[in-house]
Amino acid sequence: MISQQEQSARLALLLAEGIGRQRYAQLMSCADSAQSLLTASAGDWRHWGLDQESIHGLQHPAWAKAEAQLAWQAKDSSHHLLFQDDPRYPKALRNISDAPPVLWVRGQLSVLYEPQIAIVGSRHASRTGLTTAFEFARDLARDGLTITSGLAAGIDTAAHEGALSCPTGTTLAVMGTGVDLVYPSRNRTLALKLLEQGAIVSEFPLGTKAQGWHFPQRNRVISGLSLGVLVVEAAEASGSLITARLALEQGREVFAIPGSIHNPLAKGCHALIKRGHAKLTETIADILFELSGQLSRFLLAQDTSQKNQQDDQHLGLSDQAKQILSHISFEQMLIDDLLTISGFSAAQASALLIELEMSGSVNLYGGARVARVGVFPVSP
User: Fold this and answer.
1) Fold (topology level) of 106-282
2) What are the structural domain ranges in the chain?
3) String of b and e for 47-77 (b: at least 16 CB within 10 Å)?
4) Element of type H or E holding 32
5) φ, ψ for residue 82 (rounded to 5)?
6) Taking the domain 302-372, which CATH number applies?
7) What CA–CA distance (Å, rounded) separates 160 from 133?
8) What's the whole-model pTM score?
9) What are the C-alpha distances in Å from 209 to residues 17, 60, 113?
10) Cα separation of 380 and 372, whole Å?
11) What is the pLDDT of residues 148-171, one digit of tens each?
12) Parallel, antiparallel, or unpaired for β 333-334 and 369-372?
């Protein structure tokens, strides 16, 4: 783990006037720690060939700002600061060029490690585009993918709402502000709900307000966290196409939904498809088929640890509980259907489902529905 002193030194350097993420990366390559950088002599700085702005930043670290970030992290167990060499930092994002030196995270940290699909599009989407984004997000979330977007108006909002409409859905919002702010402000309620089933992420420090250049910059994080990017509606010159370009540069899959030739918001999607930069997408099966290899590798990497966890989880179950569990799907199913399939009576099933729920093997939902707990294979 990175010591508190080193975290403070890194933040004080990163947030110093005139530094920024690129100069910070250059400085960190000169020494084995930020503490070493800040305590080095002027002769060392000159020997490393540092420019005047870098030296000025080293002479004037932002200690007060750094302590404010660390105090925020200590305030709540759902507040996290992830440095690039922290084992909790998402591996997919760490491997892109120009990865953020630090991620500020609010909410459920676990969603950062789930397979993600980004859904992006116009802030001024059509009703059809909003419905499409909502339905694709809902169905992809139901199939086990975390929905990643930017909490902006339009398609982003519909995508987050679609994921949240699925009881087991998870979603991630990458912000162009600090994670303590919500932009646009009308999405405040959505952001609070999102924290219950996902997380808010930013590379910008606390208190950073929205500026135009922040959003193209954050788009590389949206695509970098994801296996692929789905563009629902986009004009020919839009931030969504920037995200698609960045995704291609990062080796991610890009998908685009076609629309009417008379809809100006379909032109960006059509351009991506015509240039061979995106796969024409009509159903979620088109996405799942293209991502099946990556999802298989992801699931394979998780398989051993999950199997061990499930074996431990099921050790104390009665034989009848294990028997009824074998009939329960990872997708929600009616308990009435379970009774038909398993042959147990309603009274027997009720007692066994309580046993399974207490062991963490199943979740019970309203409408007399049940689903098995765990990551499950996705098929087109």
Assistant:
1) Rossmann fold (3.40.50)
2) 1-68, 106-282, 302-372
3) ebebeeebbebbeebbeebbebbeebbeeee
4) none
5) -115, 115
6) 1.10.10.10
7) 9
8) 0.78
9) 17, 23, 27
10) 20
11) 999 999 999 999 999 999 999 999
12) antiparallel
